[in-house]
Design a protein that fits this description.
There is one protein chain. The chain is mainly α and about 150 residues long. The protein has eight helices and two strands; from the N terminus they run H-H-H-H-H-H-H-H-E-E. The chain has a two-stranded antiparallel sheet. Strand 1 and strand 2 form a beta hairpin. The radius of gyration is 20 Å and the shape is elongated.
Length: about 150
Amino acid sequence: MSALLRRHADRTPAEAVPLHTWLDTFRTVLRATPDAEVPTLRATAQRLPLSTRTLQRRLGEHRTTWPDELQTVRSERALRLLTSTDMTLGSVARHAGYAGPGGLHRAVRRWTGQPVAAFRAHSDDDHPTEASTVRLGSWTRGRHTAEAAPRTS
């Protein structure tokens, strides 16, 4: 038994199974909100289970905010629905949490640099190119930070 424990203790952290961080768990819960619902701070906190203030504090500890995380989920949801469905722009806007198509139009142009129609046309291409990479990002303290995310067809 002692030999087994010694071998276990000698394992390096690199060999250990990676654990999910609290932020990974939070993002999983946030993304698990059904498409027909817009995630709210209160509902997400209840699913974790935390108070809304504790949720905001934990997000701050991970150098992010509720609005930043919500924007990321909204953009992922909207772009996925635009590329994988024939839903009207108004329906996609509602499912992504926008009041109407105008806000979604502006958001898609900000994320991708293209109008919705051009973005949808590119999503129908059979051959992915560098143009099939969209820019997702979050607004952080007055600055827009973007990261490349491969588009899925």
